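Exercise 7. Predict the structure of Carboxypeptidase from Marasmiellus scandens.
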Amino acid sequence: MTVLLGFLVLLGLFSVASSTTQRPFQTNNAWHGTPWSDDGPNSLFTPLESLSVLKTDSFTTMQHPFFPRYSVRIKKSDFCDPTVNVYTGYIDIEARHLFFYFFESRNDPAKDDVIFWTNGGPGCSSAVGLFFELGPCRVTDESGAKFHPESWNTNANIFFIDQPIGVGFSYADHGESVATSEEAAKDVAAFVAIFFENFSQFKGRPFHMTGESYGGRYLPLFASEVYDQNTRLVEAGLTPINLASVMIGNGLTDMYKMYPAWYEMTCTAASRSPVFDIKTCVTMKQTLSRCEKWTKSSCIDQFDSINCGAAIAFCDNAITLPYWIKPIRYQYTLQRRNGGSVLP
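Solution. The predicted structure, encoded as tokens:
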């Protein structure tokens, strides 16, 4: 289930978990080497320091000895927002390559916060967020992208990332892939640390991880990995990421518990008056119990890929599909008809 649009300006849709400072959890996965320092025995790393050193005609490669499997290719680009510096590149994890955009803040890039954005899907490129939602430019017609004055980079530096592998401009060699969101979380956390270590002006800045739709699954995992990785960074004498908040819009966080909510939202007065006719609601009600039992037994209690996939297909067809094929109301605002007029 891919949700492409839906919360362009209403930050009230966001659930925000904030913490301006972090005390990393203690873990057993510790770094036991000598901490890095500018003049210590393990001074193996020379940061790029400033984005100004990047070229426009070729990629510059960034690495860090703490992340031997990872490197980052980045170059300056002339793209989308002529008022700020823009950069594009790839996070290279051996044979896997994740594409990203980075836009500096229009306000004060030397001091403003840093935002990480991912769309959902799974399988939706963050170009959707860039061009149709919160990005510096928007595509509104066939004439191309136009400057977006309400972009989030008005007051923040922002990443857009195409993930997992195979989404947008991200690609892989030799048939490589990412099997789980937990694996993707490690890739994202390593990238953020490498970027901040190379460009020290961002160290200590409040860092916000944001997204929508299936981002409700991605972001808790990504933020958790950044948080846990901070312990290892501190033990290695490196600067932890100042994870300040996680913001999820219209998030799919627990799809198995969301199926009953689809029925409650569309067939009862839980929010507005019922959306569907009695026949549709009776059918949804009759299938809801089977949907819950099937997903619990095949997806939660004991995961079975084939049975879980069949259960999800059944539930989507019976519970969520009617909402998309019966365009009675605008899907993201029940108080409006599909077409814009306000309902009584």
